[in-house]
What we know:
The chain is α+β, with helices and mostly antiparallel strands. The protein has a single domain, classed as tt1808, chain A (Alpha-Beta Complex), CATH 3.90.1570. The protein is 21% helix and 38% strand. Strands 4-7-9-10-11-12 form a six-stranded mixed β-sheet. It has a three-stranded antiparallel β-sheet with strand order 1-3-2, covered by helices on one side. Strands 6-5-8 form a three-stranded mixed β-sheet, with helices on one face. Strand 2 and strand 3 form a beta hairpin. The two termini are 18 Å apart.
Amino acid sequence: MEARDLRRMTVEEYIALDRGSDERWEYVNGEAFAMAGGSPQHVAVVGNVYFALRTALRGKPCVAFGEGLKISTPRTRAYHYPDAIVVCGALRHDERDDRAIVNPTLIVEVLSPSTADYDRGGKLVHYRSIDSFTDYLLVSIEDRTVEHHHRIEPGKWLVTTGVREGVVDLESVGATLVVAELWTDLDRLR
């Protein structure tokens, strides 16, 4: 997904805009961004990630959600729509926006050329401000790799880059992802 159509506004104005729009809007530093649709490859990989998480978590205490669920980072006053989220335990909602949750455990972003730098940088800063957040997956379609950020203790993260094969162990949510399954049907979409 790529950001487009920037608007400056208050949090309350943003929430009203996002609720009243057919588009999804993200909000950072007083500015709202309309999120453009993704390429067929992006949409396919997002679906593959969600399916893999949903399947791996069936019957377990954590639940996977697709790209339509919004995350609030109250400490940084930002709102984002990640490509996939896993929540362990009961959903906790934002005080201002009951359509946004504040307690993701795992967040997944499928990288797009226009948003990769923000997903690796500024967005990660927002996400790391969430106490329940322990794992971040950045999935690169171009390189067919997975980058895994795992919190090992407050303020310390283990980052594994360039995972091309095998599995990604998501111990904090009780799941394992087979990397090859993330690319299912991708070659058919060229």
